[in-house]
Amino acid sequence: MTATDKPNLAGLSLEKLRTLFVDAGEKPFRAEQVMKWIHQRGVVDIDLMTDISKDLREKLKLSTQISLPEILQDYKSDDGSHKWIVKVASGSNVEMVFIPESGRGTLCISSQAGCSLDCSFCATGKQGFNSNLTVAEIIGQLWWANSKLGCFSGEMERRVSNVVMMGMGEPLLNFDNVMDALNIIMEDCAYGLSKRKVTISTSGVVPAIDRLKDYTDASLAISLHAPNDELRSQIMPINKKYPIAELMRSVKGYMASLSDKRVPVIEYTMIAGVNDHRQHARDLAVLLRELPCKINLIPFNPFSLSDYRRPSDSSISNFRQILQKAGYTVTVRTTRADDIGAACGQLVGDVEDQTRRSSRYKQRATEGKAGGKSFNSTDNLAIAADRV
Ligand code: SF4
Fold first, then answer.
1. CATH match for 9-63 among 3.30.530.20, 1.10.490.10, 1.10.150.530, 3.40.50.2300
2. Can 95 be counted among the known catalytic residues?
3. pTM for this entry
4. What is the DSSP letter of 8?
């Protein structure tokens, strides 16, 4: 499938599809028909859309396109998870992961090729940044997962019941495209997932969280990873721009705008010797006192270019107990799919880096090894902080 300047029907929200048909002098209900063909039946050949007149199909073929990203590879983990490599128009490859669990199947999708934010515990950040994904490239990941899992053909291996925007990239730095993709994911005549089953995960782009309520009511996860500004700024450079107090204010505002009682998930990647001390847990309990939330602890998943270590089981257990005693609901994320490099924080793809970050990290790693000095991710924080 090639990209052209014609509108891409696969990447249009229902509202935009209706506008397209009305502007062409057609009935707006054609939008629902086309959405069902593409997103519920997996049909991307306009000739096969048989409840649309032949004349209109010819018109659509001349003036529009249906273009999806390409799947380059499908890796299947011993635990049943899949990682798919997706080629996008900018020339980069991004990754998406499907994690089957009892009673649900979660698809973790990417929003950018690379990421500009360079969190020190994240492999994606080390790739530098190439581009925002288009709406069709974001929604195309869900389309392909449904296709590969047999959901369109009825020979269903598993079903995608939940979508998390937790793959490569910071979703709220690709705001407009992510909002349109969320609309399609939650639209009844497309994938029809409920607001509770669709989660945006953000590192804390405060102005974008402030705008969110005007566009969606999806669930929210916050990558917090530290209980105070000093430590958070060290491991997440974005914190220098949007410190914790501003982030908390913004998250509370979004949660208050929702019509039901939902709470955000606070994501906390535990890194041995960095943020896994008992005092960090106590401080976290105090910090979150006024924000009803669930806490998800993620033991760090190692990757090359980082010498961070996973905490011991006893550190994780102690940390969890302190938070539970303080009254929080705490889960510890089970590591899945690390045999295919698809565990949390390990996604790398193949990013045509527009920055010099990836080569700088690789050079530092080589120098560190050559000089017998171990590579320290936090060495790079000063460089990264300048870019946020
Ligand atoms: S954790 Fe998210 S925001 Fe941070 S570098 Fe990785 S992809 Fe970007």
1. 1.10.150.530
2. yes
3. 0.89
4. B
| Rounded distance between C-alpha atoms, residue 138 and residue 68, angstroms | 9
Q: Is 170 in the pocket of ligand 1 (CB under 6 A)?
A: yes
Clarify whether 344 is annotated catalytic: yes
Gap between the Cα atoms of 159 and 167, Å rounded: 19
The finding on whether 124 has its CB within 6 A of some atom of ligand 1 is yes
**10-residue mean pLDDT series, the chain (388 residues):** 79 97 96 98 97 96 96 91 93 93 93 93 86 97 96 84 96 98 97 97 98 97 98 97 98 96 96 97 97 96 86 96 98 77 67 73 63 30 29
> 235 CB under 6 A from ligand 1?
no
Report the side by side order of strands in the sheet with 219-223: 70-76, 82-87, 93-101, 104-108, 162-165, 198-202, 219-223, 265-270, 294-299, 329-332
The closest-lying atom of ligand 1 relative to the alpha carbon of residue 112 is: 7
Query: How many helices and strands in the chain, by DSSP H and E?
Result: 13, 12
Q: Of 95, 137, 187, 267, which residue is the catalytic one?
A: 95
Q: Using a 6 Å cutoff on CB, does residue 166 contact ligand 1?
A: no
Supply the pLDDT for residue 348.
66
The answer as to CATH 3.20.20.70 being correct for domain 70-385 is yes
Residue tagged active-site, from 119, 189, 293, 344: 344
d(CA 85, CA 94): 6
CB distance 167 to 223 below 8 Å:
no
CA of 170 to the centre of ligand 1 (A): 6
Please indicate whether residue 301, judged by its CB atom, sits closer than 6 Å to ligand 1: no
In DSSP terms, which residues pair with 168 in a beta bridge?
Answer: none
Ligand 1 geometric centre to CA of 328 (Å): 25
